[in-house]
Amino acid sequence: MLQVAHDALAESPDASLNSIAKRAGVGPGTLYRHFPTREALILAVYRHDIDRLVDSVPEVLAAHPPLDALRHWFLTLAAYVRLKHGLGEALHTAAAQEIVDATYAPVTGAIARLLAACEAAGDVRPGLDPADVLMLMSCLWRTPATPEGTAQAARLLELAVAGFRP
Question: pTM for the complete prediction?
Fold first, then answer.
């Protein structure tokens, strides 16, 4: 249900819970039992996305050279956060802040693993702080979800990576 909800909300932030239930092949009652409010579903989708992304670090590093893995991982994070920011008021609550706070340490831990791999490969200078890198990379999800925004995010990513080099 969470992946179907992610896909539906990525296509249209206004997707109804009933349309998500139908798309997931479950009745509305089943969806509402698990997620009694739209906010609960949106927050569960965001948490699920971030957990999957954090857990993906070993696979991303296995599939790409370290610096490319870092790029790929941050572009994926930007897409998830951009989706979250596109969902409006549902994510400006105390419950939303709890989810963001709960995902901060795992995200910075994932960044630390990516940076360590990049450092070992000689691609970045030693001593980069994962929290600083996360803050710097936040520019990626502030670009619009348009072709121009995607191009701008790619340019910003390369500017940041240039600053990480030894």
Answer: 0.84
